[in-house]
User: Fold this.
Amino acid sequence: MTTPSPDGDAELLERVLMEGRATMRRLQEARAMVHDVTGRAESADRTVKAVADGRGEIVELHFDPRVMRLGREVLGRQVTAVLREAQRDAEARTRAIMDAALAETADVPAPLDERFVRDRVERIARDLL
Assistant:
């Protein structure tokens, strides 16, 4: 393996820093986008509607007055199904955002390891002697 010159080291470090900053920016953007995610669902008869946020928390639940005509068991099944669907929708949207962000950051170079640093210190020590 050829040892890069000090100028090459500086260029490598600068590239790693720039790519690291770009990665952090992209992940922060994805985090902000997830914060704004909403998953929505409604029952087939449109009497029950729910909204979940990017973490899957239910943030809204609406009942049309027609739900009063439904029996307890039917209403319970509808509410449960709508809540789950809203959460699944939010999860799918969040997953799509994170998958895109991770795909865009897949080319981040590996971190500089101990061997890289040790080689540079040894080379500097040899140059000084």
In short: The longest strand covers residues 48-53. The mean pLDDT is 84.
